[in-house]
């Protein structure tokens, strides 16, 4: 019996139970032996008892081991595990820094009544150029090197999210307050400072009597919220879709050597372009420029993120190196 018990092997729950009943059950072999104990001659009682106990221990041991083995197997197969075992910590991922900054910008503008609008990354000529006061052969088209998908009729990868604003004006009547975040594409050499794919947030505000002062105040509110810096300046500039146009600088300061380096010793940093929407653009989008006026602005998210997080190379955003990405844990 002992040899039989020790050699017994199975992976079946039912067979283990049958084995247990056979040896350890109420009418099992062991109880039979214990019942026969009183009839064993006295001088053999000692040895008989030892052997029966040995058999009992072996049978109990076997049942425990077989059950353990069965459980481990099932766990490996994912049937069920020991639910009381302590859990393994799971690494929580981090949001991408571009998403964090984008969400922050959306939050700041939504607090003053802007909604979010989106549009296609593949655009036609009308929405990316012509409606924005950039007719065919306009020299300013060269300002943004374009990836063309097809020509005549031209289909291209949008070079800015101003195209979304055109779509929004075509579909909505003023008052309009909207920001358009999204991916844009320009046929530029990739370097530490520029990439052929990047992200923008552009804003559009159209209503009766919107003035340049409204634009300035909105941008000041925005830069205070995002950077905590309270001084901006607007430098005259040119965009085909705005008139007048300006470049927005924030006063970054000259407190550290880095400040000195990134501002080239001036303390000022350019962060976006803006201006009053050109009446031609309003007309193209079926909005009467005699009744309505508005402002627009646009910024690159990568550039803002590089300033906020002191990132020196734009290419890091697209390499998906976990050592870079896991540094950004944020509520946004
Ligand atoms: N669309 C411009 C660009 O891509 C940014 C801009 C938007 C400038 C709105 C003025 C007004 O650079």
Automatic annotation (TrEMBL):
Its cofactor is Mg(2+). It catalyses: tRNA(Phe) + L-phenylalanine + ATP = L-phenylalanyl-tRNA(Phe) + AMP + diphosphate + H(+). Its main location: cytoplasm. Transmembrane segments: none annotated. InterPro entries: aa-tRNA-synth_II, aa-tRNA-synth_II/BPL/LPL, Phe-tRNA-synth_IIc_asu, Phe-tRNA_ligase_II_N, Phe_tRNA_ligase_alpha1_bac, Phenylalanyl-tRNA_Synthase, tRNA-bd_arm. Its EC number is 6.1.1.20. Keywords: Aminoacyl-tRNA synthetase, ATP-binding, Cytoplasm, Ligase, Magnesium, Metal-binding, Nucleotide-binding, Protein biosynthesis. GO terms for molecular function: phenylalanine-tRNA ligase activity. Residues 101-319 form the Aminoacyl-transfer RNA synthetases class-II family profile domain. It comes from the Bacteria. It is found in: Cytoplasm. Binds 2 magnesium ions per tetramer. Pfam families: Phe_tRNA-synt_N (PF02912), tRNA-synt_2d (PF01409). The keyword ATP-binding applies. Mg(2+) binds at residue 243. Tetramer of two alpha and two beta subunits. Belongs to the class-II aminoacyl-tRNA synthetase family. Phe-tRNA synthetase alpha subunit type 1 subfamily. This is Phenylalanine--tRNA ligase alpha subunit. It comes from Christiangramia antarctica. The gene is pheS.
């Amino acid at each position: 019996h002992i040899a039989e018990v020790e050699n017994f092997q199975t992976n079946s729950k039912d067979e283990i139970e049958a084995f247990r009943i056979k040896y350890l059950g109420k009418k099992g072999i062991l109880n039979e032996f214990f019942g026969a104990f009183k009839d064993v001659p006295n001088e053999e009682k000692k040895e008989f008892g030892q052997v029966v106990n040995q058999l009992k221990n072996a049978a109990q041991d076997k049942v425990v081991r077989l059950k353990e083995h069965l459980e481990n197997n099932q766990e490996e197969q994912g049937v069920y595990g020991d639910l009381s075992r302590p859990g393994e910590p799971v690494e929580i991922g981090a949001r991408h820094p571009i998403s964090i900054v984008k969400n922050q910008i959306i939050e700041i503008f939504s607090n003053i009544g802007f909604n979010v609008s989106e549009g296609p990354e593949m655009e036609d000529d009308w929405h990316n150029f012509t409606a924005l006061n950039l007719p065919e052969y306009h020299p300013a088209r060269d300002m943004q090197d374009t990836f063309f998908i097809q020509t005549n009729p031209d289909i291209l990868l949008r070079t800015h999210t101003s195209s979304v604003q055109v779509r929004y004006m075509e579909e909505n009547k003023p008052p309009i307050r909207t920001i358009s975040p999204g991916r844009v594409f320009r046929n530029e050499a990739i370097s530490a400072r520029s990439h052929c794919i990047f992200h923008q947030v552009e804003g559009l505000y159209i209503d009766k009597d919107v003035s340049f002062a409204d634009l300035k105040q909105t941008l000041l509110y925005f830069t205070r919220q995002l950077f905590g810096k309270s001084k901006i300046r607007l430098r005259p500039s040119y965009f085909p879709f705005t008139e007048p146009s300006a470049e927005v600088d924030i006063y970054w300061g000259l407190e550290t050597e880095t400040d000195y380096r990134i501002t080239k010793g001036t303390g000022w940093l350019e962060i976006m372009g803006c201006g009053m929407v050109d009446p031609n653009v309003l007309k193209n989008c079926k909005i009467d420029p005699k009744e309505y006026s508005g402002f627009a602005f646009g910024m690159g998210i990568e550039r803002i993120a590089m300033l906020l997080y002191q990132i020196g190379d734009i290419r890091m955003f697209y390499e998906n190196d976990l050592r870079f990405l896991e540094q950004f844990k944020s509520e946004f």
